[in-house]
Amino acid sequence: MLRLTRQNRAHVLLVVVLFGLLVLMSVQVRGEGSTLLEQTLFGVTSPVLRLAFGTLAMMESSWRNYLDLRGVRRTNDELSHRLLELEVEQQQMEQVTQENQRLRELLRLRDRLPPVFAAARLMVNQAASAQRIILVDQGTDKGIEKDMPVVVQDGIVGRVIRPGASESVVELITDAGAAVAVRVVRTGLQGMLAGRGGETLRLQYIPEQEDVREGDCLVTSGHDRIYPQGLHVGCVVAASSGGPADGRAHTGLMMDIEVKPAVRFSRLREVLILVGVPGGAAPGAAANNEPKP
C-alpha cells in the first residue's frame, strides 16, 4: 500500500512537471510570431469572430440596400408627379388646340355668311334631353332676336326661340317641334325636315315615286324664311316606300326618309348667330357651302 502511494505521487509529480514545461514553452517559445496559447485561443475564437463579422457585413449591406431603395422610391415618386403634371399640360394643350381648330372653322365659315353675325359660346347644352335646346351667351344687347338662325362649320344648329338680355335659348333642329325647309342636292327635290326628339330627323311629305336614296345630302332651301338657303343640314341614312306621312299614320303614299344631321350637337362649344337674316339667300352660301352628293 505504501509502495502504491509512492508510485502515484511520482506519477502526479511527473504530470505537474510536464504541464509546467508545456506552459513555459508556450510562453517562451514562439513559432510563426505567436505563442502556442495564442494559437489555441485564436483557434477557439476565430469561428465566433467570423460569424460576428459576417453578421455585421450582412447588416451593413442590408442598410445600404434600404437607403438605396428609399432613394429609388423617392426618385420614382418625383417622376410620377412630373408625369402627371405633363399629362395635365398635354390635356390642356389638346383642349386649346381643339378650341383653336373650332375657331378657325368658324372663321372660314364667316367668309360664306352674311356680313353681320355674332359668335357665341355655349353655357348649357341639353342636346340629349327631352327638349333639345342649348343656352348661349349672346342676347338682345348684341342684337339677337327670335328666329335668328344658328350655325357652325358643319351645318345648321337651330334657331333662337327665347332671346334674353345677355343670353339666348336656341332650339336644335332635332327637337320634336323643329322644322327646316330643305332641298336634295342631287335632284333638287324640296321638302320639310322635321325633328323627332332623337338623334335623327325625318324628311316629310315626299311622294313614294320621288327619287330619294340613302346618302343623298340635304341643304336649306330658304322657304321657311328662317334659314338662308344652301346651308348643310344632313344626309339620308334610310329611305323606303310606304312610310308614315306625318309620323303617325301609314298611308302607303309617302316615303319614310330618315336623315342624320350634319352637326354633332353633343360636341358643340361655339356657334355663330346670323343677325338680321330671316331666311332668304346667304351671300355665297349656295355656291360654297353645299355638300357634294
Briefly characterize the structure.
The chain has 293 residues and is an alpha+beta fold.
User: What are the secondary-structure elements, in order, as H or E?
Assistant: HHEEEEEEEEEEEEH
In the CATH hierarchy, the third-tier topology of the domain at 117-288 is known as: Thrombin, subunit H
Q: Could you report the average pLDDT, rounded to the nearest whole number?
A: 77
Radius of gyration: 48 Å
Specify the biggest β-sheet.
6 strands, antiparallel, barrel
Can you count the beta strands? 12
Give the DSSP E fraction (strand runs of 2 or more residues): 25-35%
Distance between the termini: 142 Å
CATH architecture of the domain at 117-288: Beta Barrel
Helix content: 25-40%
Spatial ordering of strands, largest sheet:
1-2-5-4-3-12
According to CATH, the homologous superfamily of the domain at 117-288 is Rod shape-determining protein MreC, domain 1
What is the 3D shape?
A: elongated
Number of helices: 3
CATH class annotation of the domain at 117-288: Mainly Beta
Structural class: alpha+beta
Poorly predicted runs of 5 or more residues = 245-250, 279-289
